[in-house]
Design brief:
Strand order of the largest sheet: 6-7-5-10-11-12
Helix content: 40-55%
Oligomer: single chain
CATH architecture of the largest domain: 2-Layer Sandwich
Mean pLDDT: 79
Shape: elongated
Structural class: alpha+beta
Number of helices: 10
């Protein structure tokens, strides 16, 4: 670039005028900004509170009915508001639900609201806590401040009327061209060269500095955007993959693809609470594959895994998908949870599954050997005094009795107190195995 003597635009008069203009702008914009801040903050809090209050009735019902998915859905709807960064619900039972992130919120405000019970006489069922992101409020105030400054500047132009021609030719017109270019500029047009329509000059003034600086900024932004787009794409793909894997692993048994023990421990207390509140039965069927240790010892763990996968798939096909669910409790033990099911119905369901296992679980190996698998079941129905532990202990005791009495049968938890039926068939022979309890296999 050729060397030019820098030519200042403003004269002594302009410098004096600008001094007063700046002073006026500071005074008036400060006053205007303070007034706008007070009004904007009140309007902001009122709007957020109004949005939160619209969700309180649904949250109240969801907490009362112990519906975690509905609670999380309502929290997600609250987070759809750009002004809400983090949502927490503290229920009266001690459970806490949270969504969102408040780590990167530079200016925040906490809003707490009681969640009333579905019936007003029942008081509160929890507390809703919102962490508000006031960045949108700050942006609005800055925008209003800029507008106020521009309005004051328009008034100041009256004081500069005497030099308007010079400013229009050497300052205003070039700046307008630059502003129009920037306003219409889109992300895919950053490479377009910016040029001013100006008469030839010998000097090099501030406008030329701005234009050159803007062109350098365009080039730098283009390089940065290319690098960031690629980096964001890679990180997004990695994050999506990690989140999908984490969600699957947290609730699903990796081998059988049914729910795992962790999911059972988290979900079962809610099942019992819901059944107790509405006075409806819920049954658990504790099932165990007979002689599973001998399958592993005789045919190897790969075949044992195949037995577990096939068994889980068969049981899952026998359940009502919208109500019943199956979890792997550990090893070859599985738990079938049957909401809305009394003891007789649970016994019938367990007997149907037992017969289907006995008839369908036939395994033929490449070396010509084959074997079949049977299953033992312990069935228990929740009583009013039951916890998850006591209910599972009764079902496990029934399963143990089924094993002790020959396997391949269904035992009810209330056998010693009622005349509930016992479904029993002869245990099968597996390539010469005897039908006796052996080793550590149940």
């Amino acid at each position: 670039m050729s060397r030019f003597v820098q030519e200042p635009i403003a004269s002594v008069l302009l410098r004096q005028l600008f001094k007063w203009v700046i002073l006026c702008v500071v005074l008036f914009s400060t006053l205007q900004g303070w007034l706008n801040y007070r009004a904007g903050e009140q309007k902001f809090e009122t709007a957020v509170r109004s949005v939160a209050e619209t969700h309180l009735p649904l949250l109240s019902v969801a907490i009362w009915d112990i519906e975690p998915q509905t609670i999380e859905k309502q929290m997600g709807l609250l987070l759809n508001s750009p002004d809400v960064a983090w949502v927490a619900i503290y229920t009266s039972t001690g459970k806490v639900f949270t969504q969102g992130s408040k780590e990167n919120v530079s200016q925040s405000q906490t809003l707490r609201m009681d969640i009333p019970a579905p019936m007003a006489s029942n008081g509160s069922v929890g507390t809703l806590e919102l962490v508000l992101d006031k960045s949108s409020l700050r942006s609005e105030l800055i925008r209003n401040l800029i507008i106020a400054i521009l309005e004051i500047l328009v008034l100041a132009l009256v004081l500069l009327f005497a030099v308007a021609k010079v400013l229009k030719r050497d300052l205003e017109q070039p700046l307008h061209e630059l502003a129009d270019y920037v306003r219409k500029l889109e992300a895919n047009q950053l490479g377009a060269v910016f040029s001013l329509h100006r008469r030839k000059r010998r000097g090099y003034n501030e406008i030329d500095l701005v234009v050159d600086g803007f062109r350098e900024m365009q080039s730098s932004l283009q390089r940065h955007i290319r690098d960031q787009d690629q980096l964001v794409l890679e990180r997004t793909q990695q994050l999506e993959t990690a989140l999908a894997t984490l969600k699957t692993l947290s609730n699903t048994d990796a081998l059988t693809q049914v729910f795992n023990r962790q999911y059972f421990n988290e979900q079962m207390p809610a099942e019992l609470t819901r059944a107790l509140r509405y006075g409806r039965p819920v049954a658990v069927v504790f099932c165990d594959i007979d002689f599973f240790k001998q399958v592993n010892d005789t045919y190897g763990h790969a075949i044992g895994d195949r037995v577990l996968i096939t068994f889980a798939s068969l049981v899952r096909q026998s359940l009502y998908a919208d109500r019943d669910w199956l979890a792997r409790y550990g090893g070859e033990e599985f738990v079938i949870v049957l909401p809305e099911t009394d003891l007789n119905a649970a016994l019938e369901r367990a007997e149907q599954i037992r017969k289907k296992v006995e008839s369908d679980l036939q395994f033929f190996l490449e070396d010509g050997r084959h074997f079949s698998v049977t299953t033992s079941f312990g069935v228990a129905v929740m009583e009013s005094s039951d916890s998850v532990d006591t209910l599972m202990k009764r079902a496990d005791l029934c399963l143990y009795e089924a094993k002790q009495n020959g396997r391949n049968q269904v035992r009810p938890a209330l056998l010693r107190r009622t005349a509930a039926p016992v479904f029993q068939v002869h245990a099968p022979q597996v390539d010469g195995w005897q039908n006796s309890r052996g080793g550590s296999d149940r």
